[in-house]
Amino acid sequence: MKKIFVVGSINTDLVISTSKMPQIGETITGSNFFIAHGGKGANQAVAAARLGGKVIMCGCVGDDYFGKDAIESFKKDGIDTSHVKTVKGVSSGTAIIIIEDGNNRIILDKGANGCLTENDIDATLENAEQGDIYLTQLENPIQIIGYGLKKAKEKGLFTILNPAPANKEIMPYLMYCDVITPNETETELLGGEKELKEKIGTLLITLGSKGFKIIDKDGERTYPCQKIKAVDTTAAGDTLCGGLVSRLSKGDDIDKAGQFGSKAATIACTRKGAQPSIPFESEVL
Fold it and tell me: Please, which residues bridge with residue 62 across strands?
């Protein structure tokens, strides 16, 4: 089984529900408050680990309670945290999520996520081997994410980019990606299918409740997902990415790995929260 290197953001989500948004100076009563670990990098690392992969996480947290708790949570899922850096004097990434009648409003402080450096990437990949898997996203500084993709490719790793949130600054680095996993909106923001097909060998485009499709040298094929009543779609895409890399690390092809990841994402949609919703391999099987 190949190792999975995940480079990305680590956040804590503070979530509260309300029937209406407060006016300036107004205090209202909310409900159903909870705290959950989040951040796209962290979500994907947890998903990959719970779904059977051997995961090494690279990212940054602050020297606060949220940072320490995030590291401990990683360890409980069997994730190697030796390359999760604690940055002194900086807060951990935090997302304030207000849910009003099912619609999210999010205020994000990137915090320590902005402190990722090229040296962190170099140290993480020091013991990486050809054929290992590298997974990253766009919630850290784009130039560092691009550097990581280039470095991983030079070392012979299989590189996967989840281009979320979409940012055109990543375009020059797409040449270092074996696979990208955008949703339909991100696909269009990055130039559309036609342009992306010319730059990347394999596109895996997530289609929400319609499943996903793969576009590569063998053509295009779509895989629908099971119909469910979604409770919370937070981290569904991250769960798919985690399932994808977990199965690729065991030798599955992109189609089988994608289908496994899609099933895991379907389960995640039936549960609340980001990481609390991510299933384990046994549940998917």
Answer: 87
Residue ranges covered by each domain of the chain: 3-21+30-284
Classify domain 3-21+30-284 at the CATH class level: alpha beta
pLDDT over threshold 70, residue 58: yes
Annotated catalytic residues are 238
Q: Is residue 82 helix, strand or coil?
A: strand
Q: Which amino acid is at 37?
A: H
Residue at 160: amino acid letter:
I
Global confidence as pTM: 0.94
DSSP state of 263: H
The total number of residues written for the chain in this structure: 285
Each residue of 210-229: pLDDT tens digit? 999 999 999 999 999 888 88
Q: Mind listing the pLDDT tens digit for each residue in 91-148?
A: 999 999 888 876 778 899 999 999 999 999 999 999 999 999 999 999 999 999 999 9
| Closest C-alpha among 249, 252, 120, 242 to residue 181 | 242
Decide if 59 contacts 82 (C-beta within 8 A): no
pLDDT reported for residue 225: 87
Q: How far is CA 94 from CA 15, 36, 110, 143, in A?
A: 11, 10, 7, 22
Can you read off the two tokens belonging to residue 160?
């996967």
How many angstroms separate the CA atoms of 69 and 58, rounded?
Answer: 16
